[in-house]
Amino acid sequence: MTEAMTQPIDILIQLQDLDCLIRDLRDPEMASQQQRLGFALEDIQELERSRELLAGQVENERLLQIYERMSRRFVRVIVPVEGRVCTGCRMSLPTSDPTRQADSATCDICENCGRILYRR
Ligand SMILES: [Zn+2]
């Protein structure tokens, strides 16, 4: 069974974007590219502070824990659902519970890869 968790997905997506940026800046090869684009290495600390603030805004702690755990494994933990396919692993999801409201505030977890899914 997929689990539904209520959490505005926007904050998690912002968190993921920030994590990607921080990860890139920490990578020496990427960092030199980023520096050419105008990012300074000192910005990492600033970004980490913003990240902490953002993480603090996630109300659903369980979802945040899942995100933190999965982000060690995948670059993109939060992925959109296309049709009924998880865009992270390309697996078809079981038919959604027709009684469940498919709204943007509800997140699912992919049973196959464990990524956090959202509907666009
Ligand atoms: Zn998946």
What is the topology?
Elements: E1 4-6, H1 9-26, H2 28-36, H3 43-56, H4 61-70, E2 78-82, E3 85-86, E4 106-109, E5 116-118
Parallel strand pairs: 2-5
Antiparallel strand pairs: 1-4, 2-3, 4-5
Helix pairs in contact: 1-3
The structure holds zinc ion (ZN).
Zinc ion is lined by residues 86, 88-89, 91, 110, 112-113, 115.
State the strand order across the main sheet. 1-4-5-2-3
Query: Which outline best applies?
Result: globular
The ligands bound in this entry are:
zinc ion
Low-confidence stretches: none
Number of strands: 5
Return the domain count. Answer: 1
Helix/strand class: alpha+beta
Round the Cα radius of gyration to an integer and report it.
Answer: 16 Å
Q: DSSP helix count? A: 4
Strand content of the residues, in percent?
A: 5-15%
Percentage of residues assigned to helices: 40-55%
Question: What does the largest sheet look like?
Answer: 5 strands, mixed
What do the pLDDT scores average to?
Answer: 84
End-to-end separation in angstroms reads 21 Å
State the order of secondary-structure elements, H for helix, E for strand. EHHHHEEEE
